Amino acid sequence: MVENGTRICGYVLLLMRRNSRIARIYSLAVAPEYRQISMARTLLACTESVAMASGRNRIRLEVREDNTAALRLYTSVGYRPFDRIASYYEAAPPQVDRTAAIRMEKPL
After folding, report:
1. CA angle, 86 as apex, 58 and 67 as ends, to 5°?
2. Where are the domains of the chain?
3. Backbone angles phi, psi at 18, to 5 degrees
4. Of the CATH numbers 3.20.20.70, 3.30.365.10, 3.40.630.30, 3.90.980.10, which one belongs to the domain with range 2-107?
5. Is the sign of the CA dihedral 46, 50, 56, 61 positive or negative?
6. What is the DSSP string of 12-61?
7. pLDDT band with cut points at 50, 70 and 90 for residue 16
């Protein structure tokens, strides 16, 4: 988590299973006013360092297929798509989302 005073500017939630060498970024978010200063890149770099220090050799994430900004970011720092999951995201009723997710992975 990155804070500016009492304000949370961004965070990453990293999952690591005890008997797995693969880490998973479950969630990453950056407040809109901090998106143009490479905060997401910094958060990713720190998260990858934590995963490596914990003995992980790969890191994975899922991203909405229509989130072009996030796809560009992840690709630019070495993540590569390896799978697509149809209808991954669901909206609360009565909305229907059903957007697919792209699964991405980066060797550490």
Report:
1. 70
2. 2-107
3. -55, -45
4. 3.40.630.30
5. negative
6. EEEEE-TT-SEEEEEEEEE-GGGTTTTHHHHHHHHHHHHHHHTT--EEEE
7. very high
Residue 40 CA to residue 35 CA, distance in Å, equals 7
| Residue 40: CB atoms within 10 Å | 20
Residue whose tokens read 């999951």:
85
Residue 59: both structure tokens together: 């890191």
pLDDT tens for 44-54 read 999 999 999 99
Q: Are the beta carbons of 23 and 58 closer than 8 angstroms?
A: yes
**What is the pLDDT, as a whole number, of residue 92?**
64
